[in-house]
Amino acid sequence: MLRDDNTDNNINYNTHYSQYSSITYPGELTVYSWGRGEDGQLGIGDTSDQDLPTYVDALRGVGVKQIACGSGHTVVLTGEGEVYTWGRGDDGRLGHGDNGWKYVPRLTHSLTGQIITHVTCGSYHTAAVSSNGDLYTWGGGMYGKLGHGNETGHSTPRRVEALVGLVVIDIACGSRHTAVVTNKGCLYTWGDKENGVAGHGDTEGHQYTPKLLERLSGKKVVQLSACGFHTGCLTDQGECFTWGEGKFGRLGHGAERNCHSPRLIESLLGKRPKQIACGGFHSAVVTEDGKMYTFGGGEHGQLGHGDKVNKVKPTLVQALDGIVLQQITCGWSHSVALTTNGEVYTWGNGDHGKLGHGNGKKVSTPQLVERLVGHLVVRVASYNEHTAALVEPQSIADGGSRRRAPGTMVPVSAGYLHDMKEMVNDEEYSDVTFIVEGQPVYALRAVLAKRCEHFAAMFRSGMRESEAGVEIELPTISRAVFLLILEYLYTDSVKIDLDHAVELYIASDLYQISSLRDMCCVIVRRSIGAENATYLLQGAHEAHCHVIKQIAMEYIVANFDVISKGEGIKAVSHGLLLEILSLRP
To answer: What pLDDT, on a 0 to 100 scale, did the predictor assign at position 569?
Structure first.
């Protein structure tokens, strides 16, 4: 078992920038994505490119708090510690037990029971840290980058046993390597050694299990980043170290030489860096006072200096002078910066629309992403050819100082939505009473009528239900599902558990709430797995819910070899089993 050399007190990371730190905001964060969509990595249900930030509707109702982009796939973490992945699935990088592509976010069921606190991904693998500090990795195992002692790939998350006993708090993945930081500030790396990528001083072979980075022994690492074939980190003393492949000057040491172990970037001493971000061929650093320095390959204008010249030392991005930055993320040929007031700037190679400016043009100086103006962006992510942002859609700027796009409505506050949710089933704020499963449910006619044509017709029908003070019995719906419908009508958002998806679909269809009905299908598609597909199929069949039955049937037929060996197959009736077998190729 590995143990940390730094034996003094744990680091207080609240005073330092952590690449994957959680950010607490009222309400849920929503996801926007743009750029290349060929592998389904945008999560919008198809393979189209998007040259403007596009709302990922499949995550409606999911409270996202972290996001990371890989090479062709994406991963998010919810506030409840659940992990969703989507996009390119070869090498098992999505963690669903297969190598299939997923075009909408899908829950990683094999992590059920674990509360995950951090997620990230590299080119071909993905990683997650649990609440007790255990590390789980999955995807392509080439070069030993999963840390399991070999080059075997895994299509479901597997705990890195060599790190058991240590508390991992930060993680970064490159194309061929992985690095983690423990709660005592110790840095461990593994994977490819070529060009010094692993940072242990040698360049032959691979490091198959996590190994303490001796060069930084005695220092406390507070932030970490990796991409492609190099890595960077910050210490609690304001030092910035980089190592790995040095081509184009991406290490910032004044030359293009490879560096086989961590080396201090001397020109950043005294600059108080708070974040380093590694891209495919360049790097960027944000300082405590919100300034940004970039270095490395500039062929596509990704350094932001108005030219396409490489920089072998950190160079201040003059175009952002006067704008205070809080985060930077680097792709392979573009850069994305987030300001302290929630605005996003992008520059570099614009192919596939990954800059979000509505076209595929290259830009060599930072340009504001106009589509996101008026929204409060709290996090950005990128890797290869796509970009993503986490947005707080219900927050407004302090004092109204943020710019807004022409015609953009000011979003309502999170407090307003919270108050509306509190009014659901509140007798004090009601003028109509429903009796569901023998219990009263209180509502406000104006809200129901305005939001749902079914209720509007009911209240103007002249029938008994339209009379004031009359209790309306609803004998065909459960109380839990009816409350979900009310919550959606009051707030335009609701969290749907898979257990309620079938009944809620049927009820939404009956009440003509098409958006909620469609959301049920999205929930099923992103939550279905080998352990629940058969129960979902049987339930949908018995409820005569043909749409969800079809979704479940397609999943079972495609994954029959796995599902047929589990206990869940016993839940399927004989007739349904014959139907499944008849559909198999």
So the answer is: 92
User: Are the beta carbons of 123 and 384 closer than 8 angstroms?
Assistant: yes
Are 373 and 343 contacting, i.e. CB atoms less than 8 angstroms apart? yes
Q: What pLDDT, on the 0 to 100 scale, is given for residue 493?
A: 83
Q: What is the dihedral of CA 541, 542, 544, 549, to 10 degrees?
A: -20
pLDDT of amino acid 22: 35
Report yes or no: 69 and 388 within 8 Å, Cβ to Cβ: yes
Q: Please name the helix (run of DSSP H) or strand (run of DSSP E) that holds residue 523, with its range, or none.
A: helix 514-527
Distance of CA 168 to the CA centre of its chain: 19
Which pair of tokens denotes residue 356?
């979000």
Element (H, E) at 315: strand 311-316
CB of 408 closer than 8 Å to CB of 374: yes
Query: What's the token pair of residue 391?
Result: 């947005």
The predicted pLDDT at position 381 comes to 97
CA 227 to mean position of chain CA atoms: 17
**What secondary structure letter does DSSP report for 281?**
S
Do 366 and 320 contact (CB within 8 A), yes or no?
yes
Helix/strand/coil for 166: strand
Q: How many residues does the chain have?
A: 585
Query: Which ranges of the chain have pLDDT less than 70?
Result: 1-28, 393-414
Supply φ then ψ for residue 490, to 5 degrees: -80, -35
Q: Which residues fall within 8 angstroms of residue 333, CB to CB, at 6 or more apart?
A: 279, 280, 281, 297, 299, 300, 302, 348, 349
Beta-carbon neighbour count of residue 520 at 10 Å? 25
Identify whether the C-beta of residue 31 lies closer than 8 Å to the C-beta of residue 390.
yes
- 3-state SS record for 439-508: EEEEECHHHHHHHCHHHHHHHCCCCHHHCCCCEEECCCCCHHHHHHHHHHHHHCCCCCCHHHHHHHHHHH
Which residues pair with residue 179 across a beta bridge? 172, 189
Instruction: Give 206-220 pLDDT, tens digit per residue.
Output: 999 999 999 999 999
Q: What is the DSSP letter of 219?
A: S
Q: What is the pLDDT of residues 181-210, one digit of tens each?
A: 999 999 999 999 999 999 999 999 999 999
Q: What integer pLDDT is reported at residue 5 of this predicted model? A: 56
DSSP 244-278: E--GGGTT-SSS---EEEEEE-GGGTTS-EEEEEE
Cα 313 vs. chain centroid, distance in angstroms? 32
Q: How far apart are CA 242 and CA 266, in angstroms?
A: 11
The span from the CA of 69 to the CA of 67, in Å, is 7
Read out DSSP for 26-81?
A: SSPBEEEEEE--TTSTT-SSS---EEEEEE-GGGTT--EEEEEE-SSEEEEEETTS
Q: What's the pLDDT at 519?
A: 87
Pairing verdict, β 386-392 and 432-436: unpaired
Q: According to the model, what pLDDT value does residue 73 have?
A: 97
Residue 49: both structure tokens together: 């490119």
- Estimate to the nearest angstrom the gap between the alpha carbon of 311 and the chain centroid: 31
85-108 pLDDT, tens digit per residue, is 999 999 999 999 999 999 999 999
Residue with tokens 């996003």: 344
- Tell which residue, 172, 167, 290, has the closest CA to residue 242: 172
